[in-house]
Design a protein that fits this description.
single chain; mainly alpha; 3-stranded parallel β-sheet; 10 helices; 5 strands
């Protein structure tokens, strides 16, 4: 958590148009969709939210016209929408929140992913914290079509690595004080000790130090 997973994915997606109009075919293609699972979100509510996002994006009324009442109906409708609009990529973020949602068992989640994979037949990216790591790996072993591209673990920055120095030097340029300070090895070590290389904490600590100064 705080490693920059969501920010990196959103930044990458921002380089792609979310929709494409194919005038000769009279078709609006959805290039990508991103679903964020809320802290207390249920699986059904997440899927309904995803359908609503399509309606908001395209000006359609798929949810109102179909009124899905169950998770399976939601998945089936998402599959149809994905086929109608040639959806290119679906991203599911904060997956660990689904694990804590009331009324959703791990077996139910596995069934959901297998059904979703069968229905939409498109690339699927699932993002979560280490809390969900073991379950995700087990799920991918069972539902191979969901996890064909493998998994990637995004670790905190290492103090000995070049990334830490590069990240801190870039951040240090943004000082909101009359007399800016220089980045010294002692300050670098102190920043790492207090944040353990977690990017979100590094930025927050830097902001608080500027405010205090």
């Amino acid at each position: 958590s705080g490693g920059g997973k969501s920010s990196a994915v959103e930044r990458t997606l921002s380089f792609l148009p979310q929709t494409l109009l194919h005038e000769k075919l009279n078709l609006v293609q959805i290039v990508w969709l991103k679903m964020d699972c809320p802290l207390d979100g249920r699986l059904k509510q997440c899927l309904i939210s995803l359908i609503g996002r399509v309606d908001s994006l395209l000006g359609t009324s798929y949810f109102k016209d179909n009124k899905p009442k169950t998770i399976d109906q939601c998945v089936a409708l998402i599959g149809k929408i994905a086929s109608w609009h040639y959806l290119g990529l679906l991203v599911i973020d904060e997956f660990q929140n689904l694990m804590d949602a009331p009324g959703v068992s791990h077996a139910h989640l596995l069934n959901f992913f297998v059904t979703l994979s069968n229905e939409i037949k498109i690339p699927l990216i699932v993002i979560g914290t280490p809390k969900a790591q073991n379950y995700l790996q087990g799920l991918f072993r069972e539902a191979r079509r969901v996890g064909n591209n493998g998994t990637f673990e995004w670790n905190r920055l290492s103090f000995e690595g070049e990334e830490w120095t590069f990240f801190l030097e870039c951040l240090w340029k943004y000082q909101w004080v009359t007399n800016p300070s220089e980045l010294t090895p002692a300050l670098s070590k102190a920043m790492y000790f207090q944040t353990q290389g977690i990017k979100a904490l590094v930025v927050r600590l830097f902001q608080m130090c500027r405010l205090q100064a």
